[in-house]
Design a protein that fits this description.
Layout lengths: L2 H19 L3 H36 L3 E8 L2 E8 L21 H14 L3 H15 L13
Antiparallel strand pairs: 1-2
């Protein structure tokens, strides 16, 4: 979200108006002053638009956090996994299900549970709880988001 695009468009519009004024240097100086005065406002406006875009993208991407980062002075949308913590009431874990898994998937789940510091059961319950909460929130978006 580069503010220079907007600045360039305004500069083009001012130059078109300057051509109507002829060769008057005072008018040209005034146009330069106007453009210089507008640049900070344009940059702030672009940052506000980036913040709005981030909020709208985040609303469409369950389980993701979307924020604005400045990279070399240019606002960029950054998408990350949301830091959500799932709390499980272990007092009412009475229902049971039987799952048939491949050995490979079981190993992946065991490794993930170890990495998170949970038991295999707690990890599976947290994962299923998170996915169930995401259901119906809409996972469709259009456009391009760089991560």
């Amino acid at each position: 979200m580069d503010a220079s695009i907007i600045t360039t468009e305004i500069e083009r519009a001012l130059n078109a108006q300057l051509r109507l004024a002829g060769e008057d240097s005072a008018v040209a100086d005034a146009a330069e002053a106007i453009l210089a005065g507008l640049e900070p406002a344009i940059e702030r406006g672009v940052m506000r638009l980036a913040e709005q875009a981030a909020a709208e993208a985040e609303a469409q991407l369950p389980g993701r956090s979307v924020g604005v980062e400045l990279r070399e002075g240019v606002p960029v949308l950054a998408v990350r996994d949301a830091e959500t913590s799932v709390v499980i009431d272990t007092d009412d874990l009475e229902a049971r299900i039987t799952l048939r898994l491949s050995e490979k998937l079981k190993g992946v789940l065991e490794d993930a549970a170890d990495e998170s510091g949970d038991s295999m059961n707690a990890f599976v319950v947290k994962t299923l709880t998170t996915k169930a909460r995401e259901r119906g929130k809409g996972r469709r978006y259009t456009g391009r988001i760089e991560t």
